[in-house]
Amino acid sequence: MPDEPITSIAHVIQLSVAPVFLLSGIAALLNVLTNRLARIVDRARSMEAQFPSAAPGRLDPLRASLARMAVRARCISWGISLCTASAILISAVVIVLFLDTIANANGRLLVAGLFILAMLALTAGLLCFLREIYLATRYLRIGEPEPAAPTVVPTR
Fold it and tell me: Is residue 29 in a domain?
C-alpha cells in the first residue's frame, strides 16, 4: 500500500500532540519559576545594598533574610533544572516516536521509560516550587513595619 508510510507518520503526529501540549504547560511553568527567581535575586540585591548604611542592630536580620533568599533561590533553581529536564525528556519521547516509525522498530519500552522519567522530573520540579512557596510564606509578615532601632546620638 503506497499510503502506509504517510498514514503511519500521520498517526505519529497525532500521538505527539499530547506531549507537545505538555511541553507548552512546562514552558508556562518555567516562565513562572524564572520570574520568581528574578524577584528573589532583585530582592536579595536590594538587601545587600542596605548593608553599608544599616544600623548595627539591623545587620543580623539582613543576614538572616539573605540566607533565606539563598535557600529559596536554590529551590527555584532546582525546580527550573528539573522542569527543563522534563521538557527535554518529553522532546526525546516525540523524537523516539518518529524514529521508531521511520525505522520500523519497537521503541515502546524506550518511549515509556522516557515519559516516566519526564513525569518524575516534572513532579520533583513542582515539589521544589511548592517548597519555595512554603519558604516564601513561612516568614511572611503582614502588618505594620517593625520600628527602626533608635539612633544613639553621642552627647558632648
Answer: yes
Q: SS3 for 152?
A: coil
Structural domain includes residue 111: yes
Whole-prediction pTM: 0.81
Where is mean pLDDT largest: 6-20, 30-44, 45-59, 140-154? 30-44
Residue 53 CB neighbours (<10 A): 7
Per the structure, how many domains does the chain have?
Answer: 1
CA–CA gap between residue 11 and residue 92 (Å, rounded): 17
Give the whole-angstrom CA distance, residue 73 versus residue 77.
Answer: 6
Kindly state the cell numbers that stand for 14: 497525532
Q: 125 pLDDT exceeds 70?
A: yes
Tally: H helices and E strands in the chain: 3, 0
Is 80 exceeded by the pLDDT of residue 143?
no
